[in-house]
Specification:
two-stranded antiparallel ribbon; 2 domains; binds adenine; Trp Operon Repressor, Chain A; 9 helices
């Protein structure tokens, strides 16, 4: 997959993708990330990329010309089928959208600064608009890195053990289950017996139940279309919870 990032701070993107899993995916040729400085496409000698808004008001707006020129410069390398603006007004990034993006051959991520981009960029040039959450960042770069990292780890070969992607929180719509590693006793805190039992089916069942327990406690909105097996576990969880409450009241 190829991802072109248009930004005023290419060094932020370059530093963010150089290390860890993404760095390795890039070295192995599974992922290509190129950051292009929008300022390089400014037509004037001051390398201006922003201007005051028509109608007045505070702040500056990113101009059309350098952004259109920067996108057009990618034409030979990128299909330009997905030109994604990072913005707090966009569609919220979730694992479903990540999976959808991971099936694309390439994409362009456009990082805005200042008060945003000219509407003729947002409405006419961009095909998508993505937000990483209901808060305002100073620019789209950190959001672009979040998209790149989430999409990158879905590409075959990036995460060594595919199983670890398949059991990620959200991969199958649930939060993750709790994990333990050695030592078996840490400051008096132990490890659930079942995990050291060597009984794989029991371990799988315990993990699924814990994932369901976490999800029902913290994000019940994620629990849709439960299987019959999950429904049975949920009944067990409910019964245990009622039991626990009864004990506490005594
Ligand atoms: N740019 C500024 N804030 C943002 C957010 N929450 N998501 C994506 N891009 C942004």
């Amino acid at each position: 997959m190829r991802i072109d990032v248009l930004t005023l701070f290419p060094e932020m993107i370059e530093a963010g993708v150089r290390v860890s899993l993404l760095g390795k995916a890039i070295q192995e040729g599974i992922l290509e990330v190129a950051a292009t400085n929008i300022r390089d496409f400014s037509a004037d000698r001051h390398r201006t990329v922003d201007d005051a808004p028509y109608g007045g008001g505070a702040g500056m707006v990113m101009k059309c010309e350098p952004i259109y020129a920067a996108v057009e410069s990618l034409r030979d390398r990128n299909s330009l089928e997905r030109i994604i603006l990072l913005s707090p007004s966009g569609r919220r990034l979730d694992q479903r959208l990540v999976r959808e993006l991971a099936s694309a051959r390439d994409m362009v991520l456009l990082c805005a600064r200042y008060e945003g981009v000219d509407e003729r960029v947002r409405g006419d040039l961009c095909t998508d608009e993505i937000s990483i959450g209901d808060y305002v960042l100073s620019g789209g770069e950190v959001a672009a890195l979040a998209v790149i990292e989430a999409v990158g780890r879905m590409l075959p070969g990036v995460v060594g053990a595919w199983e670890s992607v398949a059991t990620d929180s959200f991969y199958d719509g649930l939060l993750g289950f709790p994990q333990y590693t050695r030592p078996p006793d840490f400051r008096g805190m132990g490890v659930p017996e079942v995990l050291v039992s060597g009984h794989h089916a029991a371990i799988e069942r315990w993990r699924r139940k814990q994932a369901l327990r976490f999800t029902i406690e913290r994000r019940p909105d994620l629990l849709v279309n439960s299987t019959d097996a999950d429904k049975a576990l949920l009944v067990e969880i409910e019964r245990e919870e009622a039991e626990r409450k009864r004990e506490m009241e005594q």
